[in-house]
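As noted in the main text, all predictions were made from sequence alone. Below is one such record, for Acetyltransferase (GNAT) family protein.
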Amino acid sequence: MIVVPNPALLEQAVKKFMGSTADLAFTTAPGVMTYVALNGSDISGWCWGYRLPRPDGSAMLYLHQLEVDEAHRRQGIGRQLLTTFMAAGADAGATKMFLTTGADNTPARNLYDALGGGPASQGPTVNYWFLLDRP
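Prediction:
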């Protein structure tokens, strides 16, 4: 079952998949979309990202993380999480979605390909990370 997590469930998912404590202000930040997969009361996976408004009035989705517990992989949970995320984004007006994954992450790339995704049409892309200092 895929659910929008309550604060306690989000806290458990963040601890399980990020090894950290949750900042519950995250749940009220504009555009945040988070889903948790449950197998009974066990958290078997999660995904989170953002609905991003665009200057032309449209919106797009950014999927930041999708993870399924190793014991629950190859059961369709990642597919359920991703399709739930995409459907909710489309219902909220998004027309495109983007994400990044490792070039060698074959299971993730197979899932994204199977759901109609593909490499960026503008050609190869490079991701940059910046660590930001506070003034």
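The CA atoms of residues 44 and 73 lie 9 Å apart. The chain has a mean pLDDT of 87. These features were considered when defining construct boundaries for the mutagenesis experiments described in Section 2.9.
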